[in-house]
Design a protein that fits this description.
18% helix, Serine/threonine protein kinase
């Protein structure tokens, strides 16, 4: 685990799965619109970017999932970036990244992460 301001990083020892929790005290009112705007600005930074989906999900007050893949040396990474509004003054990004070939086998772990996530009080 590594902390950097409002971000906490978790890296799989000896593997390449990665979890980032990013906290903000200035939530955007519409997580889907926020991800769409960020997608336009960021997709150029992901080689061979491909959107899988970008949609609202039922999670806390408001949330949206932005799922995509991109090229890395030796393959593709698969990412789920969940934007979550937990209160009028608190939001989180839950960024989960795995090699594309491990995406399906990592779903149980991702469900555990999202089911056990609790915002700071």
């Amino acid at each position: 685990m590594q902390r950097d301001g409002g971000r906490v990083y978790f890296r799989e020892p000896g593997g390449s799965r990665f979890l980032l929790i990013d906290q903000s005290d200035q939530p955007k009112p519409d997580p889907v619109a926020d991800w769409r705007q960020q997608e336009k600005a960021r997709r150029g930074g992901y080689p061979e970017y491909r959107r899988v989906r970008l949609e609202a999900v039922d999670y806390f007050e408001k949330a949206a999932d932005w799922e995509f893949t991109y090229a890395v040396r030796g393959g593709r990474q698969h990412v789920l970036n969940r934007g979550v509004v937990t209160s009028p003054h608190q939001a989180y990004g839950i960024y989960w990244s795995t090699p594309d070939g491990q995406w399906a086998s990592s779903q149980t772990m991702l469900r555990t992460i999202t089911a056990s996530f609790r915002p700071a009080s």
